[in-house]
Specification:
The complex is a heterodimer.
Chain A (H helix, E strand, L loop, with lengths): L12 H4 L1 H14 L3 E6 L6 H15 L3 E6 L4 H14 L8 H15 L8 E5 L16 E5 L9 H11 L4 E4 L12 E3 L16 H10 L8 E5 L8 H12 L5 E6 L8 H12 L5 E5 L5 H10 L2 E4 L8 H8 L4 E4 L4 H4 L7 E3 L2 H13 L1 H18 L2 H16 L5 E3 L1
Chain B lengths: L5 E17 L2 H10 L2 H14 L10 H9 L3 H8 L9 H18 L12 E17 L2 H10 L2 H14 L6 H10 L2 H9 L7 H25 L7 H7 L1 H14 L3
Antiparallel strand pairs in B: 1-2
Helix pairs in contact in B: 1-5, 2-5, 3-4, 6-10, 8-9
The chains are: A alpha/beta, B alpha+beta.
Chain lengths: ~400, ~260
């Protein structure tokens, strides 16, 4: 693969327009000299690491000194945090006293190795949430940035986490439905995609055609695609059932593509079940993507006729954002942050069942002009609301809001 | 004329979650009555900013949720038709929302519940006001600035200023009225509806109006450049000409 030059902040001027680009710099100037630390639990795989990989250098470029620490842990720790993750998504999970002890052990082990000499600390997701105990020895404002769907958490596990969260100066959630009863401010910041990244940049048509040929996909027939981790909550088996319903009335192909993340031991369990469900249907293409398959994801999304995201639970679903940016009609479950992106009948279609998804797909396959219009609207929706430049702006605004507590209108 | 410069600001929203939610019309009503005013403002205005490429049929979250999610189409339409520009205060707007929903509940006994996951979640907003660095001393500079600033700046001066100042006019019209006495232009800009036009379209309409005003100004200057002929003076004094000019301006500034 040919390595590409990493885009600089200046490169985003053309995508978002000069006024937005300058406005971000104006805000950054007010905050210049401040130091931020980002902490999460994986350097590779999953939406959080992907955002941080771009956000951190860009924040530095506009004058906000930002560092990024990755929490270290062994398999036993990530098994515990996966249980916490699933429970926050609503699954009934037991967090035994021993598991709680494992969580505390790795929290303290990591804290011995990280110094917090910054003005603001962003802790991403539940894995490093316990780091808040270092707040007492730091001058920083601490922010818990929750990327996952905590709209209906399994209460006993949330109650384990809540005492940590309450000690933060503020929290950030990705969607309105994730709001909790907390004594601290809860800001809503949607995640974002990088329009200039390998995953979202323009790709020559010839390259797309070569990829399709290599993967035995027919460019003449509709391609339905779901790209996401192989995870029960992404419902890959439901996607196959949806495709089978569509196939009864419209000829099409299905691509299920995804990978795992270093903090996700569950992926390995679901993949064999996906192959089993696909059986010998040659129009179902299961593609296991290794890390750093961004270009392949980009090509698959661009080659798709319709992009699906039939998740049972979601954080925000950046794969939806990516598809909308590529002007693809999206059929997606109304969960997590998806309704913020898919405005029903304007930028895509929201569904609540396998049957509903199949019905909408058939409708869009039969009405390509409507599919095109949804795609056009989706692109503009993302341009204004879900690009990394807006994400940078929002983080800067949280810093400002924390410097001006209780003010509804802040003049800079 | 010693005109006061017009400084272009931009308003950047930071959304805050309240934790309040509604799963049916009664719960929506209770929360609309009690929630912070900045939440009413957010739900009746953020569409203008976030979906500014769309001029969709539901210019408020309340109308969209009631009409599309709760499937109470009639009530959704009644909430959608509220012209927010007619309510100088959020308090007045809140009262109108309450009145319409209460009336609907009295007329229709049923209360539908939404599917899990589709509840209405109340949010509110913090505004951070930043200078764009752009300012104008006259209409020509004003027009040039309009072309340069971001849509959040258009939003701030056209929408947010009016709400904050509890005013029936917008910031642009106010400045034009105060500094150039172009009443026709000021009121024409007032008539632009940002709730049913995209912000970009609002910008383009204002730029066109200002362009026509500049053109008219140039014609005017050329006409009166030769006062010795007496023609200009004669024309100016004729009442029929004033009527014609007034009619012409009405057509000229028509949206």
């Amino acid at each position: 693969m040919v390595s590409r030059v990493v885009p600089s902040f200046a490169d985003y001027r053309e995508v978002v327009g000069n006024p937005v680009w300058e406005m971000i710099q104006n805000i950054a100037r007010v905050l210049s000299g401040l130091k931020i630390k980002m902490v999460n639990s994986t350097a590779v795989g999953g939406g959080v690491a992907e955002i941080l990989q771009r956000l951190v250098p860009l924040l530095n470029e506009i004058g906000i000194a930002t560092t990024w620490e990755v929490m270290r842990g062994e398999e036993e720790f990530f098994k515990v945090t996966k249980i916490i993750h699933n429970a926050l998504h609503g699954k009934t999970e037991e967090l035994t006293p021993q598991m709680q002890e494992t969580y505390r052990f790795y929290t303290e082990k990591n804290l011995r190795q990280i110094k917090f000499e910054d003005d603001f600390v962003f802790i991403h997701d539940p894995q490093p949430a316990g780091f808040i105990q270092a707040k007492k020895d730091s001058r920083a404002k601490w922010i818990w940035r929750c990327h996952i769907d905590v709209s209906t958490p399994y209460r006993p596990v949330w109650e384990f986490l809540r005492p940590y969260v309450m000690q933060y100066d503020a929290s950030i959630f990705s969607a309105p439905s994730f709001a909790q009863q907390l004594p601290i401010p809860q800001y809503m910041i949607a995640p974002s995609i990088d329009p200039l990244s390998e995953k979202n940049r323009e790709v020559p048509l010839k390259q797309i055609e070569q990829f399709l040929e290599k993967n035995k996909l027919d460019p003449q027939r509709p391609i339905l695609t779901q790209i996401s981790r192989f995870d029960k909550l992404k419902d890959p088996l439901g996607v196959i059932k949806t495709y089978q319903l569509v196939k009864k009335s419209e000829d099409c192909q299905l691509v299920l593509a995804g990978g795992g993340a270093t903090d996700d031991p569950e992926s390995a369990e679901i993949i064999p079940r996906v192959y089993e469900a696909a059986a010998d249907d040659r129009d179902i293409h299961v593609i296991e993507l290794p890390p750093y398959s961004d270009l392949e994801v980009n090509i698959l999304q661009r080659a798709s006729t319709i992009v699906l995201q039939k998740s049972l639970k979601e954080g925000f679903a950046l794969t939806v954002t990516e598809a909308l940016w590529k002007k693809k009609p999206v059929v997606a479950s109304a969960v997590g942050g998806i309704p913020l992106q898919v405005i029903h009948n304007y930028t895509g279609m929201l569904v609540h069942s396998i049957e509903g998804a199949a019905l909408k797909i058939i409708y869009l396959l039969r009405n390509p002009h409507i599919a095109n219009q949804l795609g056009e609207n989706g692109r503009e929706h993302v341009r204004h609301n879900f690009l990394i430049t807006r994400h940078i702006r929002d983080y800067l605004m949280v810093l400002i809001a924390l410097q001006h507590p209780s003010e509804k209108v802040i003049h800079l | 004329m010693d005109a006061k410069p017009f400084h272009f600001y931009t308003s950047q929203p930071l959304v805050e979650l309240t934790g309040l939610r509604a799963g049916n019309l009664r719960e929506l009503l209770v929360n609309i009555k009690e929630v912070d005013g900045s939440s009413i403002y957010f739900h009746t205005h953020h569409y203008v900013r976030e979906h500014h490429f769309l001029s969709n049929e539901y210019p408020s979250d309340f109308a969209y949720w009631v009409g599309e999610i709760l499937q109470e189409r009639e009530l959704g339409e009644k909430l959608a038709i509220i012209d927010v520009r007619n309510y100088p205060t959020i308090r007045a707007l809140r009262e109108q929302l309450v009145e319409i929903i209460e009336h609907h509940l009295q007329e229709n006994g049923r209360v539908r519940e939404v599917l899990t996951g589709l509840e209405f979640h109340f949010r509110k907003t913090i505004s951070i006001i930043v200078s764009t660095g752009q300012s104008a001393l006259n209409l020509s500079e004003f027009r040039a600035c309009l072309q340069r600033v971001d849509l959040n700046s258009i939003y701030y001066h056209l929408v947010e200023y009016r709400i904050r100042e509890e005013n029936l006019t917008n910031d642009f019209s106010q400045w034009i009225r105060d500094n150039s006495q172009k009443e026709s232009l000021a009121s024409a800009i007032e008539k632009i509806d940002p709730y049913f036009n995209t912000l970009e379209k609002c910008r383009q309409k204002m730029i066109e109006m200002l362009g026509r005003e500049e053109h008219r100004q140039r014609l005017h200057e050329q006409l009166f450049r030769y006062p010795s002929t007496g023609v200009a003076k004669a024309i100016k004094e004729k009442s029929w000409f004033k009527k014609l000019k007034s009619a012409f301006q009405r057509v000229w500034y028509q949206e």
